[in-house]
Amino acid sequence: MDTPNPKRQCCDAFSSIQRPNSVTIAPDFNQNDFDSTISSFLLLPDSPYNSIGCSFDRVQGQVLDSASKASGDDSVRDRLIDRTGKLAFLLLESTKRFSRMRATHYNYNSWSLPDELTIKVFSGLDTKSLMQASACCTMFRKCSIDPLCYSHIDLKMGGKRIFDEIVCSMIHKAGTELRSLKLGRVISSRKGSSFTSTCLTSVIRNHGGLLRSLQLYNRIDRNQVLMRFVISVSSSTVEAFVTSCPSLTTLKLVGFGLKEETVRNLAEGFPKLTYMNLTRTPGISGRFLRDLRTIGRDSPIKTLILRDCHCLDRREIGYFLDSLLNGHFKFIRHIDVTSEVADGGREIIIGKYIITKLKEQRSDVTIVAKSVCF
């Protein structure tokens, strides 16, 4: 039978009970008598729960009254109540440990899949389900720590916060098996996302050479700016990230204050990048698209999403569309520059002439531009 992790520590508040060597033992203490008392308690005959509860109340009340009268100090009651709570906690924790041991023993006997197949099944679970499975028993926990189980990390949250420690730990567990990483808030929140560029550093250190998809979401109030992330993402970090992830094909950065130069380095740096989504990037004009045209090779990007980028410059988008007509960006298939909020109440639509020309010369390209903030 597999046993729980023997290194597992209890809370410090209960260390004096859990570790008898750290406290002075009464001279008349007898371990056999103590064990016998606990055995008698655990072997109590079945009784209605309300009857047992009444017995607890009655006996505990008598003990508290007796101790208080004997010492003449009413604070003894508080200490006894606190000690009783600690003992109850230790009993509960012991029960949980034996429950996990039984679950592990049962799973070893009834689980028909070998560890290799179990790991493969776990690798297909979403991150939340994987954590739930790992908490079931020791056997599942051992299988769930295999790097293959963390090849696709999805920590997109609603209103909850995501901390660097959790993200970095999972990236470290994945190691070179990391294939996709999704982080951040997918609903609006004033708190913003709590992860920083440390997450990217973890990918760099763990050799993200096989990472194919990175999606980061930063949903914050429109009047706020998550300066911590903006400041912490230095050009050297971006350069190291680009160098460390040559297999990246999908890049989605939603709601980050990236600069034009940073965006250009990202778009130019990944040789296999086919999908780029920079929704709600307030600081870009679109100049990086002009730079992409002059790098000496055709960009592999097939899908470009610049939705709700309120500082997009109409001329830059015009230059970009003209370059499509001139034969550049041969791989591009989908472009989205729509916006839900017009710049100063002004709604600008791309001219019909350009749209018509694109349909004639680049019929394989779809442009979504209902309302654009240039």
From TrEMBL:
Cellular component GO terms, alphabetical: SCF ubiquitin ligase complex
GO annotation, biological process: SCF-dependent proteasomal ubiquitin-dependent protein catabolic process
Superkingdom, taxonomy of origin: Eukaryota
Annotated SUPFAM superfamilies: F-box domain, RNI-like
The F-box domain, residue ranges: 111-155
Name of the protein: F-box SKIP17-like protein
